[in-house]
Amino acid sequence: MKRHRSGVVVLAALLAAAVASGCAAETGGGGTGAPGGPAKPAAGQQGEAAPQVGPARALDTYAEALRKKQAARAVAAKKWGLAKTPLAAPEPPKTKPVITTRKGFEVRDDKGLPPVFTTVPTKEKIVFLTMDDGAEKDPELLRMMTELSIPYSAFLSDYVTSDDYGYFKKMQQRGVTISNHTLNHRYLPGLSYAEQKREICGQQEKILKHYGKRPTLFRPPYGNYNRDTLVIAKSCGITAVPLWSSEAFPDHMEWREWDRDLHPGDIVLTHFRGKGDWKGSMPDMIRRVMKTITDKGYAVAKLEDYV
Question: What pLDDT does residue 196 have?
Fold first, then answer.
């Protein structure tokens, strides 16, 4: 008799649950059907896609942001007279690659010293755009690079930036990393240890004062250095010494490599100069270098995301 009464109770509970579920489907208590009409399947059931969560939603969000960024780039490319829209760089690596000194660029007893290199190890079709010195302070360059969303790195020398630190502060505020190119752009191997220290570490302090942070990247003037250079650079916070594989001008490119071509991870050098120094303006130079980079199927990535 007890077993019979238990069975009746369980059956009644199941029937009540079924009725409640049906009512919810018709009246909106968890479904979206209209009263008396067919119930719309709940999210996650057959007939309606489940909402995306976690990595899938993040991937869609990134893709949509990239689409919008490229659309804006296409408009800016036409405005600034680029031959093609710059290609989109891939997401930066979660772990930065291990960088070692390029063969032939070593100094004696260089273990533990900052590596000297011209190319970042990567298989992605990306290059890195870097600008040296700081003599030309063209406001058009700031607008152009911001609207095109092209990353670049600035290696500054104080003797040509001290008349307008504010220009490069605006650049920094737009995401550009300010790095060290010495105080006075002197030929470092011809200097004493103390003189080199003043040039390198003195510029570290200048950049800290005006831009709030000591750089970790350093480029010696003319690409010339010796062991003292690297020892001193390390002593005042430098961790890497990026040189370059090619150099951009408004009317041509110059190449370090025998094949006169770009390679994954190459560092491209140019300068803050204008018509007084070369055949064109800085926007002219950007148009030229971006045509070369884009025609060869490369995108520009941010050096500091990899180094």
Answer: 98
In 3D space, the residue among 272, 275, 284 whose CA is nearest the CA of residue 137 turns out to be 272
Share of the chain above pLDDT 70, in %: 81
Backbone angles phi, psi at 90, to 5 degrees: -70, 170
Tell me how many helices (H) and strands (E) the chain has.
Answer: 8, 9
**Looking up tokens 């490069």, which residue turns up?**
168
Average pLDDT of every residue of the chain: 87
Length of the chain: 307
Of 190, 246, 185, nearest to 219 (Cα)? Answer: 185
pLDDT band per the 50, 70, 90 thresholds, residue 61 = confident
144 Cβ neighbours under 8 A, 6+ residues apart: 76, 80, 283, 286
Could you please report the per-residue DSSP string of 214-281?
A: --SBB--GGG---HHHHHHHHHTT--BEE--SEEE-SS-EEESSTT----TTBEEEEES--TTTSSS-
What are the pLDDT digits (tens) for 129-188?
Answer: 999 999 999 999 999 999 999 999 999 999 999 999 999 999 999 999 999 999 999 999
* The CA-based dihedral angle spanning residues 144, 145, 146, 152, taken in that order and rounded to the nearest 10 degrees: -170
Give 166's DSSP letter.
H
Q: How far apart are alpha carbons 266 and 209 in whole angstroms?
A: 31
**Ramachandran angles phi, psi of 141, nearest 5°:** -60, -45
Q: What is the DSSP string of 1-31?
A: -HHHHHHHHHHHHHHHHHHHHHHHHHHTSSS
Q: Please give the Cα distance from 284 to 287 (Å, whole number).
A: 5
What lies within 8 Å, CB to CB, of 224 at 6+ separation is 187, 188, 189
Alpha carbons 59 and 91: distance in angstroms, whole number: 11
Q: What is the pTM of this model?
A: 0.81
